[in-house]
Amino acid sequence: MFDNVWLIPLFPLIGFLINGLFGKKIKNEAIIGGIGTLMIFLSFLVSCGILMQMIGLPPEQRVFEKVVFPWIHSGHFKADMAFLVDPLSVVMIMVVTGVGSLIHLYSIGYMHGEEGFYRFFAYLNLFCMSMLLLVLGSNMLVMFIGWEGVGLCSYLLIGYYFHKKSAGDAAKKAFVMNRVGDFGFLIGLFTLYWWLGSNHNIWTVNFMEIKAASHLLPYGGVVTVATLCFFLGATGKSAQIPLFTWLPDAMEGPTPVSALIHAATMVTAGVYMIGRMSFVFIKSPDTMMVIAVVGAATAIFAATIGTAQNDIKRVLAYSTVSQLGYMFLAMGVGAFSAGIFHLMTHAFFKACLFLGSGSVIHSMHHALHKIHSHDDAQDMRNMGGLRKAMPITFITFLVSTIAISGIPGFSGFFSKDEILWQSFSNPYHGNLNIVLWGIGAAAACLTAFYMFRLVFMTFFGECRINPGAKNHLHESPLVITIPLMVLGALAAFGGYLGMPKLMGLLPNYFEHWLDPVFELSTEYGSTYAQHGEHLSHGLEWGLMGLSVLIAIIGIGIAFTMYVQNTKLPGKFVATFPALHRAVYNKWYVDELYDYLFVNPCKAFGQFLWKGFDVLIVDGVVNGVANTVMGFSGIFRYLQSGYIYNYAFSMALGVVVMLGYFIFK
Amino acid sequence: MENLNSYLIVSAVLFSIGTIGVLTRKNAIVIFMCIELMLNAVNLTFVAFSRYLGNFDGQVFVFFIMTVAAAEAAVGLALFIAFFNNKDSIDVTDANLMKW
C-alpha cells in the first residue's frame, strides 16, 4: 500500500487537468464539481489505506521512501522525485485530503452559479496536488516545488474575483510576501547543503539522509544561520511577524479558499516544515528562542487586532494568524508533536468556522440580493440573531468556537493547553518560559473574547439586517451543511486523540504516533536543556485550570459587552478612542510597511524607470539612432534623385582619374 | 596625316559639348542627342587614329559603336515614350520616384 503513495498527488493532478483543459466545454457544474471532489476523495481513500497499514506496523518500521522516478543526478548532486511516508507526513496527508474533500464538496454548493466555476475547481485541485507534494516530498527540492505551487495557487485563488481591484491587489501582496519568505527557504537550503557537503562530503537534500548526518551539525553557528533562513520562509508561508499582513487581505478570495488554503492547510506549511526538520532546528538554541518569541508575539498581536474587526472573515483571518502563532510557539519550545497536534485540531475547527462564516455570508448575500440591497454581506454589524434562521450553521459554528476558545472536552482545549503547559515547563528557555506562558494565556483570553464576540454579534441578539431581507434568510443546502457537521464533529472530538497524560483517561495516541519522528530532536535538545526542579502534577492541573478560567473570563467579557449590555462597546470606544483606532487599523502595520518598504521600493522603481530606463537605456538607444539619422541627413543630399547629378559625379570621377594618370 | 592633332581637338571639343549637354539639359531627347554626340566624337578619334596608324581595327570598332548606338536609340526612345505616357513630360527631373 505504501507503494501507492504516488497516487495521492496524482489524483488531484488528473482532476486539475480535466477541469482545467475541458471544464469550459463541460459546463455542467455537477460534473465539474463532482470530478474535483471525487479526485481528492480518492486521494483521501488512499491516505486512509496508508494510515491503516502504518498503524499495523511497529513504530520503528514506519518510515518508507518511494522513489517515483530519478529526477536530477549531476555529480555530487542527487534529487529524486520521491515521497516520504512517515507518521508526520501521514498526519498531514490525512488532514489535507480529509479537510480538502469536505471543502471541495462544500464548494459545489457555495460556488454555484459563479462565473468560472470550472476554473475554481481546477485551481483547487492544483492546490491540493501542490500541498500533497509539499508534505510528501522526501527531499527539500520536491518540498520546494510544492512550496511554490501552493503559493501560486494561493495567488490564483485570492485573485479569483480578478475584476475587483482589491482582490488583485491582495493576490499580489500575498505572492510578493511569500516570495520574500521563499528566498529565505532557498538560502537556508543552500547553506545546509553547502555546509554538509563541503565539510563532511555529504552532498544531500534528502530529509532522511540529513537526519542520518545531523549528528555532524554543530550547535549554533552555521545551523543558526540556516534555520533562521528556513524560519523566514516559514514566516512568509505561515503569516507570522513580520510577514503576516498578507493573510487578512487574502480574505478577498472565495470563502472555501480561505478555509482550505488560508486556515487549514497552506498556512500550516511553515509549521510542518519546522517539524520535518526539527532535528536541525533543535540544534540551534537561538533559533528556537526566536521561533518561540515570534510565535508568542504573533499570537497576542493578531489576537488584539481580531477584537476590533467588523468583517466576519477578517476576524477569522486574524484568529488564524494568532493560532499559527501558537503552533510556532510550540515548535519554539521543542513541543513539536503538540504543535502538529494543534495544527490538526486547528484545521478542523478553523475550517469549520470559515465554512460556517461562508454559509452565513452565502445566506446574507442571497437575502440582500433579493431586495437589491447593497449592504455588506460580510459585516457583522448587519447580522445578529441568525441562530433561528440557520440552526445547523449556528450549532457547528458554536461548537468550533468553543473548541478554539479552549473549553475542556473540545479539541482546541487539548492542543492549546498542551502548548501552554510545554511553553511553561520546557527546559530550553529558562526564565523566558514564564513570559511565553503569560503571553500565550493572555492570547487565549483574547481568543475566547473575540470568537465569542463574533458568535454573539452574528447569531445572537436582535437581527440588524435590512428588515426586508430578514424573511429571505434561510439555512444553506445540504451540500454546505454536511461538511459543516463533519468538521464540527471533528472539532468537538478530534482532541481525544491527544489527551494529556495527566488526565490518564486515554493514552496520548497522537504523541506516541509522532514519537519516532521527533525522538532524535528531543535527544539533541537534552544536551543543552536546563533540568530544573521537577514540576508537580498539581502545578500542571493548576495551570490547566487557570487557562480554562482565563478563557471563561474572555467569554464572560464578550457576553457582557455584546449580549447583556450592547452599549458597552460604544462606551469603550468613546473612552479610549486612540486605542480603538489603533487596533481597528491593525496597529498601522500596513501603513508602516508601506512607509518602510513599499514606498521606498516604489520610489526606487520610479528612479529605475525615469532615471535609468528612460534616461540612460532609452537615451543610448535613441542617441545611436539619432546620430545615424543626423549623418544620413547630411549624406542624403548626395542622393538627389536627379540624373544629371549622378552623371556629373560620374564625369567628375572620370576627370579626376584621368588627371591622376596624366599628371602623376 | 600630319595634322592628327586637329582631328583630336575637334573630337575633344565635340565630346566636351556632348558631356556638358548631358549634364546641363533637362530634356531627355536633348540629353540623348548629346550622348550621340559624345559617341560620334569617339568615333572620330577611332577613325583618325586608324588612318594615322594604317590599321583598320579602329574602323571596325566604329561599326560596332554605331550598331550599339542604334540599338540604344531604339531602347531609349521606347523608354521615353513609356515615361511620357506616365508623366506627360520627358523632363528628367520628373523621374524622381527613387528619391526619398
Description:
Chain A is 72% helix and 3% strand. A two-stranded antiparallel ribbon of chain A has the order 1-2. Chain A starts with 6 loop residues before the first helix and ends with a helix. The model of chain A has no long low-confidence stretch (mean pLDDT 90). Classes of the chains: A mainly alpha (664), B mainly alpha (100). At the A-B interface, α25 of A face α1 of B.
Please name the defining characteristics of this protein.
heterodimer; A: 664 residues; two-stranded antiparallel sheet; globular; B: 100 residues; mainly alpha; elongated
Q: How many strand elements of chain B?
A: 0
What is the architecture of chain B at the second tier of CATH?
Orthogonal Bundle
Largest sheet of chain A: 2 strands, antiparallel
What letter string, H or E per element, gives the SSE order of chain A? Answer: HHEEHHHHHHHHHHHHHHHHHHHHHHH
Strand order of the largest sheet of chain A: 1-2
Percentage of residues in DSSP E strands of chain A: under 5%
CATH class division of chain B = Mainly Alpha
Low-confidence segments of chain A, ≥5 residues, pLDDT <50?
none
Number of domain modules of chain B: 1
Question: Unreliable segments of chain B (pLDDT under 50, ≥5 consecutive)?
Answer: none
* Protein chain pair with the most extensive contact, residues per chain: A-B, 10 and 14 residues
Radius of gyration of chain A: 30 Å
- What is the subunit arrangement here? heterodimer
Please state the overall shape of chain B, judged from the principal axes of the Cα atoms. elongated
Order of helices and strands of chain B: HHH
Helix content of chain B: over 70%
Rg of chain B, please? 17 Å
Summarize the structure.
The complex is a heterodimer of chains A (664) and B (100). Chain A is mainly α. Chain A is built from 25 helices and two strands.
